[in-house]
Amino acid sequence: MKSIILKENEGMRLDIYLKGKNEKISRSYIKKLIKNGNVLVNGQRNKSGYIIKEDDLIVINFPDKVSIDLEPVNLNLDIVYEDDFVAVVNKRSGLVVHPSSTYKKTTLVHGLLYQLKDLSDINGTIRPGIIHRIDKDTSGLILIAKNNEAHAYLSEEIKKHQVKRKYFAIIKGHLKEKKLDIELPISRHKINRIKMAVNKEGKYALTHIKKQESYENYSLLDIELKTGRTHQIRVHLSHIGFPILGDPVYGKKLNDYGQYLHAYMISFIHPNTKEELTFKTKLPEEFEKVLKL
């Protein structure tokens, strides 16, 4: 895709100009294209904030979609809500959200392809419909886009922290405070690259925590995710000495269930009606068993 900058567009940021030209693509994806060198200005790479000039030649080279044959699989997914634009799915623990070059087993995406007629394709053929993720061993609500317009809109909403997400977590021990805000930056662990860690040079991260209920040796927490860093809740709780029960990376593996972290609520503005929708789900059976014990 090529375009020559007209005088009327001079002075705009490169990413904003491209977003205006490609309304179905999210700004975050455009920035990714620029960062990866898929966007050239007069044959040169530039940053997203480059101020375009009249007669600049802009060329976008969209990357080839990664081809992995995805066969629909009947996973009997718990679809909490669905319309022509979005779906909300209650993912079970142990299910990876989408395949990758290193993970080709059955994922949530395989189940979506079986149960949903339409899915967005902005993120390519291996991540249709996927706007955000939750960890393999985390259960709960995940928002799915059924077309590219909805995907672009909701991606921006997530980026602006307008999509509200709440979680239940079980920890060993008791927090002193009934309410606690953890405001600590997070980045990739410097030694163990599969982990994240609190790091003053990391990205801003804020987690709101409320003690929901206390037991003899454990606590049930109600957590609101204000930012969406990788492993954020798990890293923050581990950092203050209360890793999530069963967390195999930041705590101690308990059984095959995974960590006891459940995304029980999601709230967002509908991309078409602009109505605020809120969905909640009850605790998984595994949580109830542990709490009874």
Topology:
Elements: E1 2-4, H1 14-21, H2 27-35, E2 39-41, E3 44-45, E4 57-60, E5 78-82, E6 86-91, H3 108-115, E7 139-145, H4 148-159, E8 164-172, E9 179-183, E10 186-188, E11 196-198, E12 206-214, E13 218-225, H5 232-239, E14 261-269, E15 276-280, H6 285-292
Parallel strand pairs: 7-14
Antiparallel strand pairs: 1-4, 2-3, 2-4, 5-6, 6-7, 8-13, 8-14, 9-12, 10-11, 12-13, 14-15
> What is the CATH topology of the largest domain?
Pseudouridine synthase
Number of helices: 6
Q: How many E strands?
A: 15
- For the record, what CATH class of the largest domain applies? Alpha Beta
Which class best fits the helix and strand makeup?
Answer: alpha+beta
Number of domains: 3
- List the uncertain runs: none
Fraction in beta strands: 25-35%
Largest sheet, if any? 9 strands, mixed
The topology string of helices and strands comes to EHHEEEEEHEHEEEEEEHEEH
For the record, the CATH architecture of the largest domain stands as 2-Layer Sandwich
In whole angstroms, the N-to-C terminal distance is 61 Å
Whole-number radius of gyration? 21 Å
CATH superfamily of the largest domain: Pseudouridine synthase
Give the mean pLDDT: 90
The percent of residues in helical segments reads: 10-25%
What shape does the CA trace take? Answer: globular
